[in-house]
Design a protein that fits this description.
Structural class: mainly alpha
Oligomer: single chain
Number of domains: 2
Shape: rod-shaped
Low-confidence stretches: none
Mean pLDDT: 91
Radius of gyration: 46 Å
Largest sheet: none
Number of strands: 0
Number of helices: 2
Strand content: under 5%
């Protein structure tokens, strides 16, 4: 029976070593889990940012389409078409007037030259 304390001590020492190993493994797993959680949190934030960006893009596209529709509606109104036709007539009148003025200026210049 004199051997019992030696065996008990050896068993206790082995248990302590095993426990230290388990503690070390648990710590390593903890570090890995913390890193993984951090990675997942970053992924989640990026995913939320992409989602928000996509939602904003969709909203802008809807706003743009709505604005295009409004412009088309205004452009296609009869009164706008009438104004456009009137503007074209006015532009044509200005062009004719400019052409007449040019011809008159050339004639005046020619007359001045003949008098000299």
């Amino acid at each position: 029976g004199a051997n019992r304390p030696g065996i008990a001590h050896a068993v206790a020492a082995e248990r302590a070593i095993a426990t230290e190993g388990e503690v070390r493994r648990v710590r390593e797993v903890n570090v890995e889990l913390r890193d993984r959680i951090r990675t997942l949190e970053v992924d989640l934030q990026m995913s939320r940012a992409r989602e928000a960006s996509a939602a904003e893009g969709a909203r802008l596209a809807r706003d743009f389409a709505r604005a295009e529709d409004e412009v088309r509606e205004v452009r296609d109104r009869p009164e706008v078409e009438a104004l456009r036709a009137e503007l074209e007539k006015a532009n044509e009148a200005v062009r004719r007037s400019e052409a007449h003025a040019l011809v008159a200026a050339e004639r005046s210049h020619e007359a001045d030259r003949l008098q000299i």
